[in-house]
Amino acid sequence: MLGFWYKEFPQYPKDHKDFWRTRLIAHSLLITTCYFLVLTLLNLFYFESYDIALIDALGLTISLGIYTWFNKTANVNAAAWAVTLMVVSLIMMFVISVGGHAHSLFWATLIPPFSFFLVGRNWGSLFSTVAFTICAYLVYLQQQQTVTIGLGSLFNLIEVSLAHILIFRFYEKTRFSAYTRLSIRNLEIQHLAETDKLTGLYNRQKFDFELSQLIAKNDVFKTPHCLLICDIDHFKNINDTYGHLVGDNVLTEFSKILKMRMGNDALIARWGGEEFTIILSNTSLNDSAKKADDLRKYIAKNTITNIAFTISIGLATIQKDDTALYKAKNNGRNKVCVSDNDSTVIAQSTYLNGSIA
Predict the structure, then answer these.
(1) Which tens digits make up the pLDDT trace of 171-189?
(2) Whole-number Å distance between alpha carbons of 115 and 87
């Protein structure tokens, strides 16, 4: 709704450290412009307090001047100091001019949220300390005096309360936005940390973590999980014959086939080089062997990037050793080798009646 007031600066995108400072400067100037306009009219026509109206009119003029200058220059640091000095000086000028009466001291509570955010904690602490020291002195001078609460006190309380709501509403928006962006960034970093850059599959670190978690759960619940280790046969020959770029394309396309053939529930990772690992949760050894052999047959019958090759797969229940892959390769490659309870069964091309032949 107020998009016309909040100018977008291309040099300060949302991930820039000064983006929210530019927004706070615009937000602060919007508040001060509206406030000084209303206060000027109130003090001029309702209270007939012309000296206070003059201060408010000065604040209105300065606010609009800073806003115009900032939109032209986009100088964040200078604008931040200009807004802070304007807010601090005009508030304290008003408080001192009325001797701290009519609950005018409440205005000083606006100094910390402006100064701390705009010029930092050191200068914010200094400005706040000076302002509150002056306020304390004015209260000291009012000792033994009778306090009269009039309409001016009510207006001061309402105006300051509204200003605080607007400022801290803005702060909460910045905090929430920063938290959201940080959460997204953390997810992106986590994804990069556990993903293989070439294939988009999980990497070895992620696989090791998930495997250890499954083993720990398996000890308690005895849930059937199967581990498959898949290797592209003679992959070095592909690199030597066609080049490493083609070899990378083969790995990438083979990874896509793995995800397509193994299903969404499978945890697939690139173990290293041309070796891949797959965890099939809640899947029996027999069903896992069938999936593995179907994959082997599919690769043997089709080319990937116009290159024909075969794969070897070893599989075992999750708590057993993973020597099945090496037994498969040692027995001539293009095999599915199943290891279960210290026995080894090799499937070369057929899968009959739910058992490896």
Answers:
(1) 888 888 877 888 888 888 8
(2) 9
Q: Which amino acid is at 141?
A: L
- Dihedral pair phi/psi, residue 268, rounded to 5°: -115, 135
* 95 touches 138 (CB < 8 A): yes
d(CA 205, CA 271): 9
CB < 8 Å & 24+ apart, contacts of 298-307:
298/257, 298/261, 299/254, 299/257, 300/334, 304/250, 304/253, 304/254, 304/257, 305/246, 305/249, 305/250, 305/253, 307/238, 307/242, 307/246, 307/250
Enumerate the H helices of the chain as residue ranges: 19-41, 50-73, 76-97, 111-141, 151-193, 204-221, 235-242, 244-262, 285-301, 324-330
What is the set of active-site residues?
274
Residue 205, both tokens: 């670190």
State the amino acid at position 205 in one-letter form. Q
Find out whether 106 and 157 touch, Cβ atoms under 8 Å. yes
pLDDT of residue 40: 93
**Contact indicator for 276, 268 with CB cutoff of 8 Å:** yes
The model's pTM is 0.58
Positions of the chain with pLDDT under 50:
220, 320-322, 325, 328, 341-357
Give residue 339's pLDDT.
62
Question: Residue 293 in contact with residue 347, Cβ under 8 Å?
Answer: yes
Q: Which residue has the tokens 């099939």?
A: 280
Q: Which two tokens stand for residue 66?
A: 């800073």
**CA count, 13 A, side-chain hemisphere, 141:** 10
Beta-strand relationship, 351-352 and 267-272? unpaired
Query: Are the CB atoms for 103 and 161 separated by under 8 Å?
Result: no
* Phi/psi of residue 326, nearest 5 degrees: -70, -35
